[in-house]
Amino acid sequence: MFFNGKNHFHFYIDLGNTIKRIKPDIVHIDEEHYSIVTFQAMRLAKQANARVLFFTWQNIYKRYPFPFSSIQKYVFKNTDSAIAGNEEAKDTLKRKGFDKNITVIPQFGVDPDIFKKMTFSDTRSDIGLGADKFIVGYMGRLVEEKGVLDLIRAVARVKGRANLLLLLIGSGPLGKKIIDLAAREELGQNIKHIDQVPSMEVPLYMNCFDCLVLPSRTRPNWKEQFGRVLIEAMACEVPVIGSSSGEIPNVIADAGMVFQEGDIDDLAKRIELLLHDKELRASLGKKGRERVLACYTQKEVALDTYRIYEDLMSKQALV
Predict the structure, then answer these.
(1) Does the model's pTM come out above 0.90?
(2) Domains of the chain and CATH, by start
């Protein structure tokens, strides 16, 4: 049985009746360990003698006041396993004293039949991009922590950028700052912004990119938890460049490039390298696709989760 507290918070009583009727062997709680709904679902699950696991993205260590500290203690004591969305979330759980099994699995995978390499000429033409342009792509929120301003500064430092275009796809509060910075850096025809695209057309736009950059910057209360846009681009055989923030280096591994977050010169050099090396772009694109197929498809995420269920059931059989 799968439980998502965001959808069922107001149905605690109904959930309890449902658990009693179904008598699940496993209850999978898609909520953080300090959440009230995790506490509620876990109580109901234990009353039904079900095995329980929860999911966490939390990759920054935090101490919680009462009652959340007590909820966390109860959850740690009564859960049977945990799934972490990234390596640092796993480390955070351990630092908090969680001593049971933790498996690192991203919450969602990609469909490789949707995100794949395809012809981009029509899409490029539709949005006014020349076929001879080298497109540096960014897709996501236009916010400080995503490092978008760093990316603009880096593009301005790329040598031989006459045919380079930075394509920003997304919206957010940085809109005016982006316009002002691009003007100061004299980017002119080297930058284009699209506010939003239909979700089903994302793979088409991905395939317009010659590389995708995710330049995230860590903040005291935030660091990159995964970077889903990376695996979407990698599945399309688009080479990726990511910062060293959070989980990004683990997602990319050797299938792309990682630069030190905030180091604009380092980012500029990596963009420049891809700009002038077509073979490197093709090689990284193929490596990216292979890594996604091995680790980040919906099928692989489901199989990894199923293995946890099998393990929990085998332990239940021994009880």
Answers:
(1) yes
(2) 2-109+297-318 (3.40.50.2000), 121-295 (3.40.50.2000)
